[in-house]
Amino acid sequence: MGKYSIRGSDxxxxxxxxxxxxVARALEQSPDRAQLRALVLLGGYGRGExxxxxxxxxxxxxxxxDFVVVSAPMNRRQGKALQARLRLLEQQxxxxxxxxxxxxxxxxxGLRRAEFSMLNYEMRYGHxxxxxxxxxxxxxxxYPHDRVPLSEGTRLLLNxxxxxxxxxxxxxxxxxxxxxxxxxxxxxLYKALLAFGDCALLMSHAYDLSYAVKKARIAxxxxxxxxxxxxxxxxxxxxxxxKEWGDYAFLxxxxxADEFERIRKYYLRFLPWYEAARxxxxxxxxxxxxxxxxxxxxxxxxxxxxxxMGALTWGLALWRxxxxxxxxxxxxxxxxxxxxDTAAIARLFQRPDSNREAVEARFYQxxxxxx
Length: 371
Description:
Beta Polymerase, domain 2, four-stranded mixed sheet, single chain
């Protein structure tokens, strides 16, 4: 096992070390140096399970480089200004290294009140400090491993469903795909397969940060009633294997349209099962507060911003409902068998128009804001 991947070589580790040192130097040389405490690597590489892409006889970095930049305590205005400067640095580093670089700012005071989301859970327990204080994330809450909010599974399924919608819209256009597009869309399908397995394990309280652990658990720790368990187990293991060893030599022969249809139809079975199981679990036991459990005043503001002041006249239930829940209900309609019920989607979004392009555009607009 390598430093950043399960099967990566020493040369692969050395390449990533070189890239990460470049990012660290950029922070050390920035005008904000006095305010910065650490550069923390997240994602697969941060967990030691990143993907080495196999190109001929070489191993190359494949995934984005996701970092958290930890700073000294600061107020909201100062934080926004610093994040804006980090965005410019992202662009410069992405161009220099040839891979997307993400530098997400967390202030020390922000870490102390970080919500219990899957992203923050994985950041807290699955990271590597590249530069700075090795204990920079110690201020984060000690999230219980067996109580990851089940709503985080729904959020993950929303994000992966959005990727499936990306594929559907492009395939619907009927044009020839470039090699890069085919690669990106195959990655989207495999991300959806990983989400099915992760959510099934989450429902049975068998979720883990490590894909090696999850791959071993998937056959005998699934929640009861999961749709087509043999399909899920087989495809989840195949998706994990591709993460461990990113050999996409199969890409030219991959039946993208057929596989998309299989995964789309499974998504339409899996999401309702997961949501029904989540609702039952919520009735049986009190859960850790969910990121969707915003105060009533905040959901009112969200709805007014997203749908106009008329949102406040919909009635108490909708007024207090997070707009993200509206996205959850819309996505299965957008991915449903043709013809899609665009009028129902338009009603969810409080839109007078109901043509397909308009409701899809509205979904993307709200998803970018609330996902």
